[in-house]
Amino acid sequence: MAEYLHFSRDSRLYMAKDGRLWSIPVLDGFSFSQATNASEITLNEMEDASGRSRRGRKMFTDSLSAAEWSFSTYVRPFKSAGNSGSALTGTGSIKGIADSTATHHHAVEEALWVAMAGQNTYTATTGKFQHSAAGGAISSIALSSTQGSGNAVTDADRTAGTYNIAIPTAASGTSTGATVSGGSTQAGTNAVIQVVINGSGTASVSVTERGTKFDSANKIIIDSELIGGAAGDDNLSIDVTSESFTSDATDMDINFYDSSRASLATFDLYYVFSDRSAGRLIYKLENAVVNEASIDFDIDGIATINWSGMAGQIKEVPTGLGAGQYTAQDSYPNPAAAGAIWIDTNDSDRFYMSTSATNAEATWWAAIDEASTSTSNFIRNRLTNLTLAPEGDKAAGTGFVGTTTFTNAAGNSDSYEASYSVAITGGNVTISNNISYLTPEELGKVNQPIEHITGTRSVTGSLTCYLASSDAATNRSRDLFADLVSDTNTVINKFAIKLQVGGTDTTKPRFEIDMPTAHLEIPSHSIEDVISLETNFHGLGTGVSEGDEVTLKYIGV
Q1: Confidence at residue 394, expressed as pLDDT on a 0 to 100 scale
Q2: Quick one: which of 42, 317, 362, 465 has the fewest CB in 10 Å?
Q3: Do 312 and 286 contact (CB within 8 A), yes or no?
Q4: Nearest CA to 32 among 67, 74, 75?
Q5: Average pLDDT for residues 266-286, to the nearest whole number?
Q6: Cα–Cα distance for residue pair 86/79, rounded to 1 Å
Q7: Are 73 and 30 in contact (CB under 8 A)?
Q8: Over residues 312-341, mean pLDDT
Q9: Do residues 266 and 287 touch, judged by C-beta distance below 8 A?
Q10: Lowest mean pLDDT among 123-137, 373-387, 428-442
């Protein structure tokens, strides 16, 4: 009888979502655990006639706590090799490919970001994540290039002004309101579009509130009477884009516009111990969610992301051909159900998941692992570039930068610089969903977590730099500290922070973090050999109902 020990360095991690698998290369130090909640009953009584005082206790297991997991990955963008076929079947030369189109940008860890940012689902035929049939928040709008009959960007009969239009707006009188048309669903709601009409009657548009249940093929038609016109004047047609995840030949963009939900996408995590050896053991974390992602860019290191989250329950995966079971053999088996796992022992233990109970090779889809073994997609933190600028245009006098003045250290009236030149030595950005799990409290049974709920979304971080000044420039780190500490007029400051992790060299992989309206705290001094500053910041949205605190961009090579 054989006995086995399992080593962390002989382990692999897979993520299962929407009927597909992703290989997640992790660093040393990963963990997962699940605790129990117990009640203790104690006795505390006086002595009886015989001198006895009962002092015993009893324990009851009330419930299982939500499982907790954590691991770290590198930030690894890449360009997909693509696939000339009609589908990513996971066979032949296209095993594990991330996209059906070559040169589209992706990241090894992208599925984790998608799960954290909303409820997007995976479309296997394209290799893209998209909103479900229910739609999502508006990511961008544009005036339709073809307005159509009765619609126009310019109508001289409109009255100049700024109009905030709720979408949808019901018809009233002769007005047809503001309606949503086109696309697979027309249920878009809770959005607000700001329309500015100039003196010539020409419209410009922007999103004030992004709403939900929108589709990228939608058009918003705004009646003329809502934008300063009269009945019979031209309406306005607006094209809608609703995407949390956009991958194309330029870059891969991830936003959190659709993360204002009570629950987010769930997935399963498979921890494989004793991989490719006897005694293989697999644990499954069911209904997992990403609670927090912390991005570190230490000057001497490689860009990493520390992931943590929760799951409903930890289970050992049994052998078999049913959903959630696994079999290991050298040729594909006949699955009993979709969601079965096959480990190909003839191909370095490559993982597959079945899409149906059909005895065919095309039933099995290989885990997406493109670029996971590449050595050219790591990002050097030392090349990171920071752009720091107050919101608004100082020259134009817009935003708080143009309207806020304060008395500087010299006793003179001053204001913020248009931008600050700060070379950082390190930093961190943490995005958190503040998730908790709901667990019943029925007596006489061990209750299990049933569902997660989101809390306040938060984006926080810190940047470190040397204390630097100049006798010729007034926008160094010394000046940033002086301006922030002198400004007692601004309750909420708004700085645009862009971190280009890995620099701007187009021949190297890069990762960008953009926070357009971050609130800066006053930097603190650190007295070392070289005096430095640490600045904490908070990514804020344009409104409390919006999820635009931060956007992410991956650029592969």
Answers
A1: 55
A2: 42
A3: yes
A4: 67
A5: 90
A6: 19
A7: no
A8: 95
A9: yes
A10: 123-137
400: amino acid identity, one letter? F
53: exposed, middle or buried (Cβ count in 10 Å: 0-12, 13-18, 19+): exposed
State how far the alpha carbon of 232 is from the alpha carbons of 144, 165, 224, 229, in Å. Answer: 20, 19, 8, 8
Contact yes or no for 537/515 (Cβ under 8 A)? yes
Collapse the DSSP code of 362 into the 3-class scheme (helix H, G, I; strand E, B; otherwise coil) and give the result.
Answer: helix
When pLDDT is cut at 50, 70 and 90, the band that residue 238 belongs to is very high
The pLDDT, as a whole number, for residue 372 is 95
Q: Please name the fold of domain 381-555.
A: Pnp Oxidase; Chain A (2.30.110)
The mean pLDDT value of the chain amounts to 91
What tokens appear for 173 in the block? 């009188």
Give me the half-sphere count of Cα atoms (radius 13 Å) on the Cβ side of residue 197.
26
pLDDT of residue 84: 56
pLDDT band at residue 85 using 50, 70 and 90 as cut-offs:
low
Neighbours of 344 (CB within 10 A): 18
Give the span between the Cα atoms of 310 and 521, in whole angstroms.
31
Instruction: Give CA torsion, residues 484, 486, 491, 494, to 10 deg.
Output: -30
Tokens of 346: 């003839």
CB 259 within 8 A of CB 545: no
Residue appearing with tokens 């039933």: 363
Classify residue 348 as left (phi > 0), alpha (psi -120 to 50) or beta: left
Cα separation, 370 vs 127, in Å, equals 12
For residue range 123-169, list pLDDT tens digits in order: 888 888 988 888 999 999 999 988 888 999 999 999 999 999 999 99
Radius of gyration over every alpha carbon of the chain, rounded to an integer in angstroms? 28
Q: Distance (Å, rounded) from C-alpha 516 to C-alpha 380? A: 24
Q: How many residues does the chain have?
A: 557
Give the tokens for residue 205.
């548009």
Instruction: Tell me the two tokens of residue 307.
Output: 């992931």
Q: What is the DSSP letter of 399?
A: H
**How far is 422 from 234, CA to CA, in rounded Å?**
50
Cα-based distances in Å from 168 to 31, 75, 96, 187, 544: 47, 40, 42, 9, 21
Q: To which residue do tokens 């079999």 refer?
A: 327
Q: Token pair of 541, please?
A: 């949205």
510 forms beta bridges with 555
Give Cβ neighbours of residue 398 (< 8 Å, ≥ 6 apart).
Answer: 392
Angstrom CA distances, 330 to 137, 344, 497, stand at: 45, 5, 52
- What is the domain partition of the chain in residue ranges? 8-32+68-129+256-366, 140-242, 381-555
β-pair type (413-414, 424-432) = unpaired
Q: What six digits make up the tokens of 151?
A: 């619609």
pTM of the full predicted structure?
0.92
Cα gap 286→41, rounded to integer Å: 32
Distance CA 179, CA 114 (A): 29
What residue has token string 């905030």? Answer: 164
Residue where the block lists tokens 């929108």 = 214
Structure tokens at 178: 């503001």
Q: Which residue has the tokens 């940047």?
A: 463
